[in-house]
Amino acid sequence: MAFETEGTKEKISGSKPTSSTKITLQKAIDMGEYDPEYLATFPEWHTLSRHMQFELIRKALENRNYQLLRQWAEINNMLDFRLKPHLKVAMKNIEKQLAKVNEDREKLYLEFSK
After folding, report:
1. Where are the domains of the chain?
2. Where is the composition biased (Basic and acidic residues) (predicted)?
3. Residue 43 and residue 83: Cα distance in Å, rounded?
4. pLDDT of 81
């Protein structure tokens, strides 16, 4: 899945901010971006202590988990869900993403507890 910005295609997840991207570190956290490599592309990230970086990552993990749970619930509560088998595929994809977030949470806790 991709989107276009100013004539170029970028991946939705994992894309690096460009000069045309108008997003702040706080907005990225609010949107659930928790990858330390991505967050390191913001200049203010390097001014924060390791503890503050970890707290921002924890907040982003909570945000991402909440967003995925909300998406899962929205799909689950659609009318005539049983008549729409393609929605089951979407729910499975969301469940996989939730599992990945939980796995990443464990890895990040280990990494930042050193």
Report:
1. 25-113
2. 1-13
3. 49
4. 80
- Please tell me the number of Cα atoms within 13 Å of 113 on its side-chain side: 7
Segments of the chain scoring below 70 in pLDDT: 1-21
Residues 25, 27: Cα–Cα separation, whole Å: 5
pTM: 0.77
Distant-in-sequence, close-in-space partners of 90: CB < 8 Å, separation ≥ 6: 75
Q: For the chain, what is the HEC assignment? A: CEEEECCEEEECCCCCCCCCCCCCHHHHHHCCCCCHHHHCCCHHHHHCCHHHHHHHHHHHHHHHHHHHHHHHHHHHCCCCHHHCHHHHHHHHHHHHHHHHHHHHHHHHHHHHCC
How many whole angstroms separate alpha carbon 103 and alpha carbon 96? 10
